[in-house]
Structure formats: structure tokens, C-alpha cells
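User: Predict the structure for this protein chain, please.
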Amino acid sequence: MDINEKATGLDINRLLKRGVAEIIVEEEMIALLRSGRQLRLKEGFDPSFADIHLGHMVTLKKLRQFQDLGHRVILIVGDWTAQIGDPSGASVTRPMLSAEQVKVNAQTYMEQFFKIVDRKKTEVRWQSEWFGKFDLADVIRLTSRFTVAQLLAREDFSNRYSTGRPIAVTELLYPLLQAYDSVAVQADVEFGGTDQKFNLLVGRELQSTVGQRPQQVFLAPLLVGTDGTQKMSKSLGNYIGVAEPPNEIYGKVMSITDNLILDYFELVTDVPDEELAEFKRNLDDSGFNPMLLKKRLAREIVTHLYDQKAASQAEEHFTRVFQEREVPEEIEEGTESNVTLRDYLVINRLAKSRSEAKRLIEQGAVDVDGMKITDVNWTFPKGTTIKVGKRGHIRST
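Assistant: Here is the predicted structure, written as C-alpha cells:
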């Protein structure tokens, strides 16, 4: 069966409606899908960080759906732009990395990337393939195609400029270099989150100016993290990593707020739309227990990232430890038991700081051998089991 035969109306609707925030330009995208031509799907990543979380999975699952219809993913390792940094609304720049660190991060990233995307239908390209040949004249020619006004149209740059906060010239180069990636690989479609809209549109503009067909822009929604308010992010600590152990993934999914259940089902699972409609009716029923759906959600995610056996074991672990309040069979051993409870939490990384440890203890989030302790200066003997919050167990030695 060729690509054209695979791209039925049902497939196209599934591709372009579920888990999609915006497509530029949708009519052109539909025409490409119906053309029967194998499309080149660009996905770039910044190897400043090695790990992938469920927020990334939204786009990666969409890439896999395109691959299943016969299209090809072009994965670009941003080994040059990693040395510049892209604020993407964060108003901070990222540190320059050594070439060796980029390679290490990229390898880890790709191991996780291919848990979701088909490796056999993916072409991996490094920016150094083309930017390694760039000289100053090439950079000047690239910058001459855009004006400062165009770049300041980006919301983050505009906000910082209007409030007098600094914008490094290197930051202004980032969208141009990302755009040139699209030219270098002749991308038909570029994928990214809604916070990348400006950069993806710059790529579309640059392709037009050099005589290429402008890429389609495929924007995915930003998944809200486990805190229930902000987008999932490692820096915010509200993430669920795709390479985390099954028990950890399952437990974190169970911790999300009820109002996120349907979003997670829609964006990171393959549960049919008909079932999602039923889930919505269930959640609208005041007598329905949302935990039932959370367990289904956690099983779906762990099964996708590992297998059904791992999902079943994770569910058994969650039931035993958190619902039936049993102590886990295997508990990490801590150190320095001759200190106060507050210092013990910090030393053993159960709290990020003494102030956070104090807050956790005083709020009643810390159990010592099954007793809730609110005294930050509490001391305890060796062999004591300490539980912090919903998941953290450690035994003093």
C-alpha cells in the first residue's frame, strides 16, 4: 500500500485534529498529505538537556503517526544552537556546552526519543554538517534576509526590549540558525510546541526567500505538569520523564490534578476518541471516582513506554505502598542518621534546601516509622524508615 492509499480522510482528520494546537497552513498540509509524496518531517532538539518528558511526547507521538503513514522524520541535533541558547519565553539564556557534552546528551536523548519514534524511519542530522562550513560571509548573508523589527516581533524579545532587559545578539541569531536547518534538510513540515511558533515561522519565511517550498508549521499543545498550573518542565520539577522507572512514572501520573486527566489521555495516549467522550461523561458525574481513570491513564502510559507487565507491576506497587500504606520491599538507604530531621532530608536529597525541609516537616508531609513528625529538630536512631510526601521512602543507616 503506498502513501497515497494510506492517507484516508479518517487518517488525515486524526493527524490534524487530535493533539494539535495550530497548523500553518492547514489547507496546504492536507494537499501535501493527499499528494502521495513522502514528506520530510523536521524535529529539532537542543542537547543542552538529555532527558525527555511527557511534554515532549505530545509531538513525538504525532511524528510516529506520520511515520505509520509512510513519512520520514528528520531529527536535527542542535549541536551549534546549543552553544547560543534559546529562551523560548523563559527570558534566560542557556550555558554553552562542550562538543563532548553535546554528544553525551544527544545519545541519551535519542535513546529516549526512539522509545516513541520509529528509528528505521528516522534520519538523524547534526547541524555541524552545514554550520561547520559557515564563515563570516555566510552569517552576514543569513542575517541580511531579516530585519531587527521582524525578530523583535517575537513576544519574548519584545517584552524584554520594552522593559529594558538585555538581549544578546547571539540570541537573535538563534531563530535564523533554526530556520536555516529547514533549508538545509528541505523540510516539508516542522513540528514544535506553541512556544516555538515564531521560530518555526522564520523557517517558513527563509525557505520562501531561497526558492524552496515553505514548510508547513505543526504546533502541538503544551502539556501542563504535575503541579497542575505550569507547562511540564524539568527546571520546574513538575515533569514525568519517559526514562524514569515504571513505578515512578505510574506514581507521578496518579498525582496529577483531576482536571488534567482528559488532556493527558488525549495528548499522550492512543485511547480512541469514543472512549474519551465516555471518560468526559464519567468525570461530569459527581458520583464517579476519578482515581479509576487515573489508574487507566497510568497503565496506558507505562505500557507504551515499557510493556504491559511493567504497568501491572507498577499498579500493584502503587496499591500496596500508597493505597494500603505498606512500606516498599526495597528502600534506599540514607546516611548521617545523627543529625536533625530537617538536615537529614537535605543531605539525602528528600528536600532541595533546609527551608523546603522545614516547610515539609511543619506541614505534616514527613512520617518517621509511621508517625507524622512536625518537629524540624527531631533526631532518630539507625534503622528508622522515613517517608516524605507520596513517594519518597528512605531508611537511616
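The first helix runs from residue 3 to 6.
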